[in-house]
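Sequence, please.
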């Protein structure tokens, strides 16, 4: 499955050093904002390690100039806010916005993928529901019938944001559908 060409989005930052402004693809647009590895680790630590201050993220091993650039970029696109700390107005902190907190499922899904394919000794961390102690997982679900068991069951169709001329050409399929290809 590939994304289709589109007109330029409003974001002009340099998180990845290039933009995907020729793509009609929400995944490509999201990568422009959070696709650089430090950005995702900064967001992860803000979500799950309580990081709010510049020095909190230095433990990642990130250079200070890169950290400043990433934090500034995350503020610019509305994923974080920067302001005086509520407990000590002489200090500044970075707090996730709703837009930033909405990335929690993305981090959990990437972690699950990493646990399966890149953690031979097993999961280094577990996400747990603080209310009941249950394990947290991400699943692909169908709004009509429930869980999807195989990615080969998925198809894509043009959404309301797809320009009509491109929607008509998607994958050469007259209905504009493309099915996920399975390798098993």
């Amino acid at each position: 499955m590939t994304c289709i060409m589109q007109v330029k989005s409003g974001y002009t930052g340099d998180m990845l050093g290039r933009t995907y402004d020729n793509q009609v693809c929400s995944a490509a647009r999201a990568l422009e904002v959070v696709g650089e590895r430090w950005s995702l680790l900064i967001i992860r630590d803000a979500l799950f390690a309580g990081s709010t201050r510049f020095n909190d993220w230095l433990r990642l091993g990130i250079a200070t100039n890169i950290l400043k650039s990433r934090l500034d970029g995350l503020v610019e696109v509305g994923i974080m806010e920067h302001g005086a700390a509520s407990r000590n107005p002489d200090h500044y902190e970075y707090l996730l916005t709703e837009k930033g907190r909405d990335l929690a499922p993305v981090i959990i899904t990437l972690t699950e993928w990493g646990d399966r394919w890149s953690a031979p000794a097993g999961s280094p961390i577990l996400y747990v529901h603080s209310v009941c102690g249950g394990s947290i997982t991400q699943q692909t679900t169908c709004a009509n019938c429930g869980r999807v068991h195989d990615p080969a069951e998925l198809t894509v169709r043009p959404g309301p944001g797809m320009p009509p001329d491109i929607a008509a050409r998607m994958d050469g399929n007259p209905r504009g559908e493309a099915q996920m290809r399975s390798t098993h």
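Confidence is low (pLDDT under 50) at residues 1-16.
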